[in-house]
Design a protein that fits this description.
Length: about 290
């Protein structure tokens, strides 16, 4: 199969870099005091090995740079004089020392930490069809993503001592907010009412499979799969100079979890969680004018 004006192939290799830094949310804590020479020596009962305590405190304050490398291959095609278009792509990326932010409920602070490695691979397809019916078109998309931690990632270490039984290593677990399957199906219909008036109707159904809502442990809250429906009706000028619209977002009032983490002031051994959610059903009236 050869490329043509209606059929294109592409391949790309990409690299990325995000600088490391100092975790500002940790600075008001005892960690900054431990870094000061001589502080740990004042409390031999708490810090029998001052040098180890200083090294651990310094490590907790600093997070490393994040790097990414990978690529994708794909194709873009159109048929029927451009009436039908389809794009496909397959990708593979590896993130080393991925920077992750978790909330420490006991200390009431956000922590920026490094995940050893995250590997994400998958494919996506999107398409659009301008039908023979005047003003009516359909579109859709389907995506598959396999995003997992593929190296040691100590997401929680309650006693601050690495390498013992209370460490939580997420190696092999799926990353947060990374559903394996997602997609949507949409339509858009524009109907002339007169030479100076145009009626519009559109809708969109979106699907997400289940996913972890946090990067804390293997018992993190798992959001079930869900479907959302959006839609809009409008009336306006055919040349787009003005338009009035009634817009509905999440019409079925589907509620899902975006993030999950410890509640503030969580006691040792506590399992209370705070979950952030979407906004639910929303309705808007919109007026647009072009000058």
């Amino acid at each position: 199969m050869r490329p043509t004006p209606d059929l294109n192939f592409y391949a790309s290799y990409k690299t990325g870099f995000k600088s490391g830094g100092v975790d500002n949310s940790s600075l008001p804590t005892a960690s900054i005091q431990l870094v000061v020479p001589g502080f740990a020596e004042q409390y031999p009962g708490l810090y029998p090995d001052p040098e180890a305590a200083r090294a651990a405190a310094l490590s907790s304050l600093i997070y490393d740079s994040e790097t990414a490398k990978g690529g994708e291959i794909g194709a873009k095609a159109m048929f029927g004089n451009g009436a039908f278009r389809i794009n496909t792509a397959a990708f593979y990326f590896v993130f080393d020392d991925l920077q992750v932010q978790n909330f420490d409920g006991a200390a009431v602070r956000f922590l920026t930490i490094n995940a050893g490695e995250l590997t994400t691979k998958g494919f996506d397809v999107d398409w659009s069809w301008r039908t023979p019916v005047e003003g009516l078109s359909f579109s859709g998309a389907l995506g598959y993503t396999d995003a997992k931690f593929t190296d040691t990632f100590i997401s929680q270490d309650p006693d601050g001592i690495p390498g013992n039984a209370d460490d939580v290593d997420l190696d092999g677990r799926r990353a947060a907010r990374a559903p394996k399957w997602s997609g949507n199906l949409a339509f858009d219909w524009t109907v002339p009412v007169s030479d100076t008036l145009e009626f519009g109707l559109n809708g969109n159904a979106a699907y997400s499979s289940s996913y972890y809502a946090g990067n804390n442990n293997f018992t993190d809250y798992i959001q079930d799969d869900y479907v959302t429906l959006d839609g809009a009706v409008s009336i306006g000028a055919p040349d787009g100079k003005w338009k009035f619209s009634l817009i509905g977002v999440n019409l079925t009032n589907e509620i899902w979890a975006n993030t999950v983490g410890d509640r503030p002031f969580l006691p040792a051994g506590g399992d209370d969680r705070v979950v952030t959610q979407n906004r639910g059903r929303q309705l808007f009236v919109e007026a647009a004018f072009k000058f």
